[in-house]
Amino acid sequence: MAPSSLDVVLADHQPTMLAGLATVLREIDGLRIAGSAQSPPDLMDVLSRVPCRLLVTDYSLPDAHSSDGLSMLARIRNRHAGLRIVVFTSQINARFVDQMRRIGIPAIVSKSDSLDHLVAAIQAVLTGGNYHSPGIPIAQAEDMRRGHGVTKSELEVLHLYLSGLSITEIATRRNRSKQTVSAQRLRGMRKLGIERNADLFRMLHEDCDSLFGSLHGSMPQKKQYSTGTTASTLMQVSDSSSCKGGV
């Protein structure tokens, strides 16, 4: 059976978030909640069984085998080419936005932005458009595509840091003070749109060649590391709704 033009599947690991989303989206005329999921395996199963035209999903869904939301979304894009996707997430940095663009995700909405933007994103993708809410660092993502805006010195410090050297060891090797090296590392990370070391190591794992390909010499070995109304009110919305027991 062909899907309804406005059938939607929702995915988020929090049941109350799913219920709140369903409550909000039911206010859109003609849109029907066709299914929901809380993990990547559940989501892939729902999409294989339930005809739909739209998916609204968080980026990070817990999975016993992988925490890589990028791989999950790439698989969905490959298996369901005609499916329109809106990523509704709290994971917001320039690197993330660039990755979403590379795999063809047309709309990203920050959970810190008004839910009006989620509705606008849905309307945009259903008519073949793109949408990014105000909290999405599009300008930073464009800077990254033009070479990250990271200086050669900052890139070299990040390269050495990711290869396992300490700030003190990098300072000795480069004949610089520890304060200078630490500042270069932090500036480089900020320009890449990341704040935590864990995100820096994740970036190394996901796209080392793109980041460090301009440097001479060997790359550090890739390693696996563990790592209006806004979405914060959806719990309250779901508590007062008729779908409190689920979607």
UniProtKB/TrEMBL annotation:
SMART domains: HTH_LUXR, REC. The keyword DNA-binding applies. The modification 4-aspartylphosphate is found at D58. Keywords: DNA-binding, Phosphoprotein. It comes from the Bacteria. PROSITE patterns: HTH_LUXR_2, RESPONSE_REGULATORY. GO terms for molecular function: DNA binding. GO terms for biological process: phosphorelay signal transduction system; regulation of DNA-templated transcription. InterPro entries: CheY-like_superfamily, NreC/VraR/RcsB-like_REC, Sig_transdc_resp-reg_C-effctor, Sig_transdc_resp-reg_receiver, Tscrpt_reg_LuxR_C, WalR-like, WH-like_DNA-bd_sf. Residues 143-208 form the HTH luxR-type domain. Residues 7-126 form the Response regulatory domain. Transmembrane segments: none annotated. This is Response regulator transcription factor. It comes from Burkholderia gladioli.
